[in-house]
């Protein structure tokens, strides 16, 4: 077999391993199902009434695309926690001592995490429909939106793989992850219109790639005016994947477990 | 030795301000066990990590199974098996799934990887637990699974980093027997340990490591003879017989034996009839014997003499780490 064929089969073996683990870690389900549901309920019923969203009859139609994008980014924590665990328990040492492709552990990990993101996404859409969200675009656009969201989640899995590889522990990875993700998600167009923010923050929110992905999702789910957002969002995702996959594989080769 | 299965020369490695390895040489002929003996932090694990391609050395070179650990790292990985001190098995996979995954990653192919996994589970008495998640395994079972994973591809060289740390005595003995069986079949093993009795039992040659240097190297017997050979210790029934005892045993020794507080100690040489001759002579001289024994120096004695500190310190640290 060629080295490319080995890389593909090694990645499949690692992905299978991670998929097998998902139903066996019920505590992990909380983070990718219950937690996002609570965010939806919090924003729809607690904050929603106080947030004005010009152009939208109902806050839930504005909120759902934003909160689903946030949920996809939080999927990165599953990646980070899993990798940190493997590092701490010496599994990464074992993998690195095997004649397998250097990219396979990370590629298999991030691919398997697309499955957990898919579960999150289904849960979020069901909950959204239950609290009154309506798709107003064509089925094709909805499908494209789902594809974009999974691509975005995949990109964040790579970003968080890198975070895990440069952190000393799962706790460290989570802390670093939250520090990066909180300003990105909340200072964006996900929960409130950026126009309602102070001008300096509005400028940040407008430039924030998170906003780009949120606006693209709104365009694809509720027919919001799109501009170039969809293509820009895809470009951001592809760029993030290219950068963080390269950095992560580079870092993995030198990974030292403590 | 060009044919050595493991050959390291002048390995150095430092982390930040710690010199983990300060120029060590190691050599193990095929089909032998080389023991790396030393306390925590001596550099044993760093040496293993370099020899298994996990870490590049700062200086020096090493060849394993004839392949350079840096230049031929990719090719070398199919020739080695590694079992670490943390029992690196996936707790959320079953025993079978763990071994099959490792077999596939050694590129055995789906069918052979499965067959080999079942064979190893059988050999390590894990067949009944094969389809249980590894997190339900006892410590001994995890170690066996970890060792089985290292053996999946029948690698000619095995690296075992403190394989029995934290194991109960029965599991330890089982693991020793397994390792001995592998070596009898031609595998070369590098074993790190803090247990002196483990190195004594398993290793053909031992390198004693302290502060990143090899401070002594040789067979267990050679190391022991450095702190003196066998000694005969006789506890007399009565202090009154001290003189008679010394007179009776003096012909067996180079110099007159010493006797204090009713205990006579003397070096024992080969060809002098040993403990049996001593008993006959004391009996003939009507000296009553409360206790008589041959004391062989242990590797504890060796460690004390070589490092100036007892191996105990390291053992205490290990117990803390395990607690």
Structure description:
- The complex is a heterodimer of chains A (258) and B (323).
- By secondary structure, chain A is mainly alpha-helical.
- Chain A contains ten helices and no strands.
- Chain A has helices at residues 3-21, 26-47, 59-88, 91-97, 104-130, 139-166, 170-186, 199-207, 209-222, 229-253.
- The longest helix of chain A is centred in the first third of the chain and has 30 residues, at 59-88.
- Chain A is elongated and about 60 Å long.
- The model of chain A has no long low-confidence stretch (mean pLDDT 91).
- Chain B folds into two domains: 6-225, 3-Layer(aba) Sandwich (Rossmann fold); 230-295, Alpha-Beta Plaits.
- Chain B contains twelve helices and 14 strands.
- In chain B, the strands form three sheets. A six-stranded mixed sheet of chain B has the order 6-7-8-3-9-10, with helices on both faces. In chain B, strands 2-1-4-5 form a four-stranded antiparallel sheet. A four-stranded antiparallel sheet of chain B has the order 12-13-11-14, covered by helices on one side.
- In chain B, a hairpin with a 2-residue loop joins strand 1 and strand 2 (18-28).
- Chain B is elongated.
- The interface between A and B is medium-sized, with 25 and 29 residues.
Features:
heterodimer; A: 258 residues; mainly alpha; 10 helices; 77% helix; 0% strand; elongated; B: 323 residues; alpha/beta; Rossmann fold; Alpha-Beta Plaits; 6-stranded mixed sheet; 4-stranded antiparallel sheet; 12 helices; 14 strands; 37% helix
Summarize the structure.
The complex is a heterodimer of chains A (258) and B (323). Chain A has 258 residues and is mainly α. Chain A has helices at 3-21, 26-47, 59-88, 91-97, 104-130, 139-166, 170-186, 199-207, 209-222, 229-253.
């Amino acid at each position: 077999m060629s080295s490319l064929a080995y890389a593909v089969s090694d990645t499949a073996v690692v992905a299978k391993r991670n998929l097998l683990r998902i139903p066996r870690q019920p505590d992990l389900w909380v983070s990718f199902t219950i937690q996002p549901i609570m965010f939806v309920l919090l924003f729809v019923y607690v904050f929603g009434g106080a947030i004005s969203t010009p152009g939208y009859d109902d806050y839930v139609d504005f909120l759902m695309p934003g909160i689903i994008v946030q949920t996809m980014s939080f999927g990165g924590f599953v990646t980070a926690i899993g990798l940190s665990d493997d590092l701490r328990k010496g599994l990464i040492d074992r993998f690195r001592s095997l004649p397998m492709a250097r990219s396979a552990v990370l590629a298999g990990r991030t691919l398997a995490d697309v499955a957990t993101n898919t579960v999150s996404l289904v849960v979020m859409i069901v909950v959204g429909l239950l609290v009154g969200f309506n798709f107003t675009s064509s089925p094709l656009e909805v499908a494209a939106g789902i594809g974009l969201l999974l691509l975005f989640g995949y990109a964040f899995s790579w970003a968080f793989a890198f975070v895990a590889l440069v952190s000393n522990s799962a706790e460290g990875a989570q802390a670093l992850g939250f520090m990066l993700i909180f300003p990105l998600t909340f200072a964006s167009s996900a929960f409130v219109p950026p126009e309602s923010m102070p001008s300096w923050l509005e400028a940040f929110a407008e430039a924030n790639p998170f906003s780009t992905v949120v606006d693209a999702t709104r365009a694809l789910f509720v027919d919001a005016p799109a501009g170039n957002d969809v293509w820009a969002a895809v470009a951001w995702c592809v760029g993030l994947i290219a950068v963080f996959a390269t950095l992560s594989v580079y870092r993995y080769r030198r990974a030292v477990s403590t | 030795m060009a044919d050595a299965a493991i050959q390291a020369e002048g390995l150095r490695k430092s982390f930040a301000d710690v010199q983990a390895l300060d120029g060590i040489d190691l050599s193990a002929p095929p089909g032998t066990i080389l023991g790396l003996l030393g306390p925590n932090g001596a550099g044993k694990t760093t040496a293993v990590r370099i020899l298994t391609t996990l870490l590049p050395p700062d200086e020096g070179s090493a060849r394993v199974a004839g392949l350079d650990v840096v230049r031929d790292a990719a090719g070398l990985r199919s020739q080695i098996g590694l079992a670490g001190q943390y029992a690196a098995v996936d707790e959320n996979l079953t025993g079978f799934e763990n071994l099959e995954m490792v077999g596939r990653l050694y590129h055995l192919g789906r069918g052979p990887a499965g067959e080999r996994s079942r064979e190893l589970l059988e050999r390590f008495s894990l067949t009944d637990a094969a389809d249980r998640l590894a997190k339900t395994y006892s410590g001994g079972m995890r170690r066996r699974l970890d060792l089985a994973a290292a053996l999946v591809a029948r690698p000619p060289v095995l690296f075992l980093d403190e394989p029995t740390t934290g194991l109960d005595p029965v599991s330890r003995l089982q693991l020793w027997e397994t390792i001995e069986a592998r070596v009898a079949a031609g595998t070369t093993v590098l074993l790190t340990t803090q247990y002196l009795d483990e190195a004594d039992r398993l290793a053909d040659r031992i390198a004693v490591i302290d502060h990143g240097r090899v401070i002594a190297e040789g067979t267990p017997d050679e190391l022991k003879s450095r702190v003196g050979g066998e000694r005969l210790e006789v506890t007399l029934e009565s202090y009154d017989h001290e003189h008679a005892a010394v007179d009776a045993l003096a012909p067996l020794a180079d110099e007159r034996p010493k006797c204090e507080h009713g205990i006579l100690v003397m070096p024992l040489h080969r060809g002098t009839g040993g403990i049996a001759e001593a008993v006959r002579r004391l009996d003939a001289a009507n000296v009553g014997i409360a206790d008589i024994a041959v004391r062989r120096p242990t590797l504890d004695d060796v460690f004390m003499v070589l490092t100036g500190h007892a191996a105990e310190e390291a053992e205490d640290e290990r117990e803390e780490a395990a607690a």
